[in-house]
Structures are given as structure tokens and as C-alpha cells.
Amino acid sequence: MTVLWQQFSASFIWQSYFPLLAGVGIILTLMTSLAAWKYFARNRVFYYLLTLLYLLSSTIVILTNNWFLFLFGWELVTLTTALMLAWSSWRLVRQYFIIQFFGSSILLLAALTAISFGYNKIGIINSNWLQLLLILGVAMKSGLFLFHFWLPPIHAEAPAPVSAILSGWVVKLGYIFLLKIIPITTGNKFLYLLGLLMIIYAGWQAFRSADLKIMLAYSTISQLGLIALAIGTGGRYAFAGAVLQIIGHGFAKTTLFISSGIWQQEYGSRIIYDFKNAVFRRPLTSAATLLSFLSLSGLVFTAGYNSKYLIKSAQIGDNFAGLLFFGLGLLSFLYSFRIIYWFFIKNQNYHNFKKNLLFKNNNYSYYFSDLAALLVGSLVLIIAAFWPEMPGDSLAFLAAKDFHLLIGLRDNLIYLVIVGYLLISQTGFIVQPRTQLSLENYLQSFLNFSYSISRKSIIFDTERIFESFFYRAIYNSAHKLYKFVYQDFTMQLLWIPIFLTIILFWQQLYALF
């Protein structure tokens, strides 16, 4: 028994950033569980069982260095989060599962290739082409550039607590995996380029969004781009910046998606132009929303500033790099403060502020589970802002790091002047909400583009393609496999997972005897 425990314990990483990140995942799951109490009155017990299984499997993904446990854990994460979407619609479940199934296939191929080249445990990969294959393996699941298309449509329809889980933590599992395999000394230029494209493209799309949840989805992609860029840069401070960005963005975005559910119920809308007198109607939610957006923008004395400064300081100190990161910082300020402008400045009535606040607060419908979740997220964001070294030893060297707050304050003032002028002169950049944002429409556009070459005008039933074609294709394949095997041997098929497990653990079992 002792030998088995030692071998099991050896399959997990108890040093570096990963125990800290596992702890963060637990706290974020607690936040979403609190928010879900009011949201999921129907089949609540089943939802919390799924949440518990999700928590265990995501923790395994973060801590393990065993390929089998890693793949097994991530598939459980996919399955549990897919079933959570059932509280919205089964159509969404099937779409999400099919997309993640393709991502899993690529990741499985990449993992088997790594094992065949002698990487029997998850660790530093020195081969550039193998790094590239593994990056592509996590691309679909973690929303890397060109593979991010599913995030906004899924968030548009997913329940707010599930969006908080997906955006706050699930998509970050791939970047935590990349922290394990990318050499800290060299980074990866391809990952750097993908990160840069994600920041610019998704940041612009976030700026052009009128729907709060769509804006949060695109800003997630943009902020994930910073993590990819940091890991691609390489270096001690870049990796530390990536870890702080994972943590800071996790709490900020989880708080914002929980808040988005509250705002939608309060106003009956997700369009930011409809949020009038938000401070009076939901003062505590307003405070959590404001703090989270300030962190996303990278304002001085926020968790977002610390991570962005570390990533910026790790770049080559030439004028182009400085100008580039100044522009990236301005873009984050632009889409974050545009939301702040519509929430708290534009068409807001602050006359008799104290009287109105007390009157509205007396008529405020308190949901203590929601408020507890927002309080936890806000508290951790404040702690992370003033304690970047975090618990443990992995980031202890940041205690002596000079974050150049005066330089950051100077840049922030320049950003505020530029953004303030643009917002006021352009009346908040009013754009029309995106209509019918869905995976079906994306497929429709792709098919129309493909057939436009032949100048054919054909209307495709994309709903049937998703609901019937992909789903039935998987079902029919499984049914043919079933018919191929003589039905009397159906029970024997149950031995297949057992045989696979024996094969995977053969070396460990052989060592026992």
C-alpha cells in the first residue's frame, strides 16, 4: 500500500506555482457555487454533484504530471461543464461537447506523440515542433487565436454561473499546462504571436460590443492573450506575470460574470445602454463590477496592473516594445472604461446621492449567496493587488520587485485623458448589439462563403447540421461498432477500460512484482 501511495503521489506536482493555482481553482469554484444557489433552483443537487466532480477533475489537471491522469481529468472537466449547460438548453450541450471533442482529439494525438518521443511525464519539452503540436492540442479548449470562435456564442446563452466557471477557470487549464511544458529560458515565439493577435483582435471586438456578456467573452480572449504572450516571452518575470494574470483575471472575470447575471435579472437586459442608475439599484454589485473592470484595465494599485507590469518588464527594452505595450494597455483601458462610462457616468442621476442611495438600499432585494460570492472575489482582488508574492515560495521573489508605480500612474493618466476624450466626444461609442450570435450562424457564414465561389444561392439548415448531422454521425459510428461486435459479447466490452488501464500502468504494476 505504501508503494502504491508513493507512486500515486509521484504523479503530482507539489512545487512551483501549481499548488497555488489549484487553491485558486477551489476558491473560484466556491464563488460560482454560491452564485448558483439562487440561479439553479431546479435539480440543484445534481448541479452541485457536477460541480464537485468538476472541481476534483480540474485539480487533477493542474497538479498531475501523468499523461493519463491529465487527459482523463480534462475529459471529466469537459463532460461536467457540458452537462452544466443543460440548464440553458441541450442544443448548447451538444454544440459545446462536439467542439470540445475535436479539441480532445488533437490533444490526445499530441500527448501520444510526446510519449512516443520519450516524454513519459508532463514536463519541459525541448523540441520546438512538439511544443507547436501541444499548443495546437490545447488551442480549441483554451480559446487560442483562430480557435476562439466558440467562446462568445456559448457565453451568450450559458447561465451566468456556468459562464463564470468557463471564463474564470476552465479555459485557463490549457495555459497552466503550457507553463509546465514551455521552457522558461526560451519561451515560444509562435505562442507569443498568437497571444499578441488575441489581445488586439479580441480587445477590439470587446470594445465594439453592446451586450455585456458578449463583451466579457471577447475581453476574456484578449486577457488570455496576455497569458499566452507572457509564456511565449519566457523568463522568470514573464512566467510570474502569467501566473498573476491567471489569478487576477480569474477572480475579476468570475466576479463580472456573476454580476452579469444579477444585472440581467435587475434590468431584464444585457445591453449596457439600459443600465441606468446602477449604483442606486445595486450598490454592492456596482462596487464589485467597478473593482473588477479597473483590474482588467490594468489601473495602478490593482491586481491587473501587477501582472501586466511584470509581462511588460520582461520584454526586450527597445522603443518598439515600449510603444507596442503602451498601445495594448490603451486598448484594455478603452474597452474597460467604455463599460464603466455606461454603467456609472452616462445618463446617471447623482442628484441627492445620499438620499437616493439610502432609499434604494432599503428596497434592495438581498441574495446573500450572490453577495458572498462577489465579496470573496472583490476581497481576493484587493489582496492580490497589494500582495503580489502570494502564499508559498513560488512567487516570493516578487516581494523585492519594484513595480514602478509612479511610471504606471503616469501612463494611467495618459490613458484616462485619451479614453475620456474619445468617450465624451463620441458619446460612448454607441454600437448596435450583435444579433443572433450563435455557432449555427458561424457555420452558416462559412458554408455561404464556401459556396459563394460557385455563385450558388443555397439556404442551409445549420440547426439540423448541428442537431442532427454531427450528433447522428457520432451515434451511427458507435452503433455500427456495436453491431460489428457480436452482441452476446456486449458485457465483455466492459473489460476494455480495465485492459487499457493495465496497459497504461504496466510499468508500475510490473515493478511491484
UniProtKB/TrEMBL annotation:
<feature type="transmembrane region" description="Helical">
    <location>
        <begin position="366"/>
        <end position="387"/>
    </location>
</feature>
<dbReference type="GO" id="GO:0008137">
    <property type="term" value="F:NADH dehydrogenase (ubiquinone) activity"/>
</dbReference>
<dbReference type="InterPro" id="IPR052175">
    <property type="entry name" value="ComplexI-like_HydComp"/>
</dbReference>
<keyword id="KW-0560">Oxidoreductase</keyword>
<dbReference type="GO" id="GO:0016491">
    <property type="term" value="F:oxidoreductase activity"/>
</dbReference>
<feature type="transmembrane region" description="Helical">
    <location>
        <begin position="45"/>
        <end position="63"/>
    </location>
</feature>
<keyword id="KW-0472">Membrane</keyword>
<keyword id="KW-1003">Cell membrane</keyword>
<protein>
    <submittedName>
        <fullName>NADH-quinone oxidoreductase subunit M</fullName>
    </submittedName>
</protein>
<feature type="transmembrane region" description="Helical">
    <location>
        <begin position="163"/>
        <end position="184"/>
    </location>
</feature>
<feature type="transmembrane region" description="Helical">
    <location>
        <begin position="237"/>
        <end position="263"/>
    </location>
</feature>
<feature type="transmembrane region" description="Helical">
    <location>
        <begin position="129"/>
        <end position="151"/>
    </location>
</feature>
<dbReference type="GO" id="GO:0005886">
    <property type="term" value="C:plasma membrane"/>
</dbReference>
<feature type="transmembrane region" description="Helical">
    <location>
        <begin position="69"/>
        <end position="90"/>
    </location>
</feature>
<dbReference type="InterPro" id="IPR001750">
    <property type="entry name" value="ND/Mrp_TM"/>
</dbReference>
<feature type="transmembrane region" description="Helical">
    <location>
        <begin position="284"/>
        <end position="303"/>
    </location>
</feature>
<feature type="transmembrane region" description="Helical">
    <location>
        <begin position="493"/>
        <end position="512"/>
    </location>
</feature>
<feature type="transmembrane region" description="Helical">
    <location>
        <begin position="97"/>
        <end position="117"/>
    </location>
</feature>
<feature type="domain" description="NADH:quinone oxidoreductase/Mrp antiporter transmembrane">
    <location>
        <begin position="65"/>
        <end position="313"/>
    </location>
</feature>
<keyword id="KW-0812">Transmembrane</keyword>
<dbReference type="GO" id="GO:0042773">
    <property type="term" value="P:ATP synthesis coupled electron transport"/>
</dbReference>
<dbReference type="Pfam" id="PF00361">
    <property type="entry name" value="Proton_antipo_M"/>
</dbReference>
<keyword id="KW-1133">Transmembrane helix</keyword>
<feature type="transmembrane region" description="Helical">
    <location>
        <begin position="214"/>
        <end position="231"/>
    </location>
</feature>
<feature type="transmembrane region" description="Helical">
    <location>
        <begin position="323"/>
        <end position="345"/>
    </location>
</feature>
<feature type="transmembrane region" description="Helical">
    <location>
        <begin position="413"/>
        <end position="431"/>
    </location>
</feature>
<dbReference type="InterPro" id="IPR003918">
    <property type="entry name" value="NADH_UbQ_OxRdtase"/>
</dbReference>
<feature type="transmembrane region" description="Helical">
    <location>
        <begin position="12"/>
        <end position="33"/>
    </location>
</feature>
<feature type="transmembrane region" description="Helical">
    <location>
        <begin position="190"/>
        <end position="207"/>
    </location>
</feature>
